[in-house]
Amino acid sequence: MAKLLALTPLFIAPLAFNDPWWALATLVVSFALVLIAGALPNLKRIWGLGAILLAMSTLLWALMLPDREPVWRLGPLYASPLSVAYGVAMGLRLNAMLMLGVAYVSCTRPEEFTWSLRRVGVPATMTLALSLTFRLVPMLAGTAQTVTQAQMARGLDFRSGGPLARIGRYVPLMVPVLAYAMRSADDLTRALESRGAGAAASARTEYYEYRWTAADTVLLVLALAYGVAAIWLRASGYGEIVGRM
Cα(234)–Cα(27) distance, rounded to whole angstroms? Predict the structure, then answer.
């Protein structure tokens, strides 16, 4: 449960700064947590998403930050060094939070996540739905990969042609993937009913019970100190290049 409680102050730090150098510092902290959690292989799988977030954030904020003196102008579009720096900071902020999410998911089992949510008062039905995402999303991704490999073995070429042509070849794969998902959902429903998923809350028991340890206390204290320090620094005028808009 300490990891779940620590997420809030850990997310506060990237949100506190809009200076790219301070945002980069929070990104470094998030990357260190990824290394500690052993989540680097999972982070490598989504590096493309992080690059897209950084590029799109920089572009959008550079062109749309209001009331700034333009330096570069192209028709109705304009940008300035300040707007570009602000866009970079926003991209680094998103990547820092993405890394924190990857670190948490990589070092937390679904059972731990469900148990923590129940301890903080989340209804059992909601915790069940959230915990299933840990299992079903990787399962569907694996199914899509299996279907793709099967089609490639039958001669379907996904690599030739332009981007639109390649995307069009993936559309027919949605049919077998969705069919498998519906079959899995039906089987899952039967399995949950047979295990008393609709039982009264008073009759519900926990298979796993996790004890609060000294390491949990240290983790939560460090996370709180990190979040409070970020708020104090921003309130003191550090890490800010654009005021409230």
Answer: 16
